[in-house]
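User: For a reading group we're discussing how well predicted structures match intuition. Take PRK06851 family protein. Before you show the prediction, I'll give you the sequence so everyone sees exactly what went in.
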Amino acid sequence: MAGKVLNYYAGGNTARGFYDLFDSITEGLEKVFILKGGPGTGKSTLLKKVASSLNQTGEDIELIHCASAPGSLDGVIFPHLKAGIFDGTAPHVIEPKAPGAIEEYVNLGKGWDSKKLAGSRDEILLLNKQRKDFYLKAHEAYAQALTIHDDWEKIYIDNMDFTKANNLSSQLIETMFSHIQLNKESRVVHRFLGAATPEGPKDFIQNLTGDVQKRYFIKGRPGSGKSTMLKKIAAAAQESGADTEVYHCGFDPMSVDMVIVREIGIAIFDSTSPHEYFPERETDEVVDMYVNTITEGTDEKYADSIKQIENKYKENMKLGTFYLQQAKKIHDQLEKVYIKAMDFKIIDQITMEIEEEIKNIL
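Assistant: Thanks. Here is the predicted 3D structure of PRK06851 family protein, as structure tokens, for the group to look at:
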């Protein structure tokens, strides 16, 4: 019987540039393989093969998806084995804590023909520069969108009853944690539930909350206190001793979009666009921040301003997606250059060696 599979992101192209949480997701791992090699050298394929093989034997796995290339992986974690394999090439460079003792570098460059690549040197340098420039433009577009989003938030912040917002948070915390006090230190892990991708925004909320008994869907508007509430709930979970998963916003990583506390079967998340979901189980519950904390009639009073801001925000988000698409096209061209110079039999052998070493941990 196959093991469980969790899907999430650990890095992404955000309004604050490329931002990653690899330090958090690798915390506590005792065996880490860091893959080195250019685009098209088989990193993602290696990750998928080893992940699938161990999962089919019953091992639980965590798949870390690539925001820049949907369908590709940045890493895989085997939580029960305290082991993981990660793409360690830029921009997600993993700093080793104990090289050799914990982390092991895996050079996929063993499989390439350096003479062939040398013949494409100028093309590689040009494509790398073009790809980097497109990512920079995407980050700039998202940064501009965040500035616009701040104006959007201000309308609702200026019309919020903060006492009601604080009381609502306190009531939820009381409901969730008043009966829980675990005699241990909480383990907190930080991840992304979604990301801006060349195909638009993606998320894994349904997968991540699939086996969680109680789900709270937070509804509201920008600036209506959703992230603040989630941060308070994460802090309360940590104080109770419960292990806590904190999922950051793929657009602004300073914000939090979801908190999961599996030990007590609770998930609470921002359920507004671009990750809007609606209750579908009897135990699902909606928490409406707009109804509970914002002055009635705010939407109507500021309708024209909100519409203008929303349109400008969407324009910049679409522009960011466009630049990610261009970066992906350049990346695909780079992959073709490297694939032509690769001997994948060597990569297959490396894959089998890594898989065997991880299985030996069992």
